[in-house]
Amino acid sequence: MTHKAAVEFPADLDRAELARKFEKDGYLVLEKILPQDVIDALMAAAARLVDGFDPTSHKTIFKTREQAKASNDYFLDSASKIGFFFEPDAFNENGELKQAKELSINKIAHALHDLDPTFDSFCRSELVKKTVFDICKISTPSLVQSMYIYKQPRIGGEVSIHQDNWFLHTDPLSCCGLWFSIEDATEDNGCLYAVPGSHKEHPCQKRFVREGNKVLFDDDEPMKHPPKDEDFIPLPVPAGSMILIHGGLLHRSFSNVSAKSRQAFTMHVVDANSEYSSQNW
Predict the structure, then answer these.
(1) pLDDT of 62 above 90
(2) Which residues contact 6 (CB under 8 A, 6 or more apart)?
């Protein structure tokens, strides 16, 4: 079995021009940038991890709207481990899975980039390096988080409006997200939505902080500068695409109401020269 999932940055793309577009919009879409063998390798690696997971070991769900309430030691410890999180609607009233574990997992997270050889290879590929160095403009990158997200058919949960800077805060702000579609992402199965340019004026409207063995938002008030629904644009992409996300970009995704999953892999990078907050979970 090979663990290699290396991929090059396309030589015909002008990274300087892409960097200007990313700085202007706060996001960048590059369609079909991953070859099929890399897509297959990442999907197979995730399936292998799920196959080895015992679903009776815990019942931790992931729900962005109420993650502070739902968080437990398993969630907190996953920052440096490979954890498995269920969709909110995966269980029946008796606490039993409604269907097979493969159709119940919300995501695998948050240290795939360090602990799984296939994801490690991909996260340190030339594609990622050149994207981070030349487009995100991070000269001393630190890879701090990675997730494989399933967005399961019909039960794939909503990801509410947020900025990545809320969760991965540095001073100065430096977070950059790289989101890869492993399957086609459509408006029906929960593609990303974003507010172009929203990273500029108010790049961090909240903080999600750790206090002891709890995580919580630093205040319960709504965002002071909330976006309007009509400000969001959908970002549907075919499998193998990359969406680059500025840490201050307001983005979200809706529930998956379709019969098709929307598998994706995402990683977050910060500048090691920025001060990484001790309150980050």
Answers:
(1) no
(2) 38, 121, 122, 125, 126
Which residue, among 54, 94, 88, 84, has the nearest Cα to 69 in the 3D structure?
Answer: 88
DSSP letters spanning the chain: -------PPPTTS-HHHHHHHHHHHSEEEETT-S-HHHHHHHHHHHHHHHHT--TTS---B--GGGHHHH--HHHHHGGGSEEEEE-TTSB-TTS-BSS-GGGTEEEEEE-HHHH-HHHHHHHTSHHHHHIIIIIS--SSEEEEEEEEE---TTTPPPEEEE-GGGTS-EES---EEEEEESS-B-TTTT-EEE-TTTTTT-S-S--EEEETTEEEES--SPPSSPPPGGG-EEE-B-TT-EEEEETT--EEE----SSS---EEEEEEEETTSEEPTT--
CB of 207 within 8 A of CB of 217? yes
How many whole angstroms separate alpha carbon 101 and alpha carbon 114? Answer: 24
* Average pLDDT score, the chain: 93
Given phi > 0 = left and psi -120 to 50 = alpha, else beta, which region is 240?
left
Token look-up 């999907």 returns 43
> Residue 63 has what pLDDT?
58
Is pTM beyond 0.85? Reply is: yes
Is residue 71 very low, low, confident or very high in pLDDT (cuts 50, 70, 90)? low
pLDDT of 137-153, one tens digit each?
A: 999 999 999 999 999 99
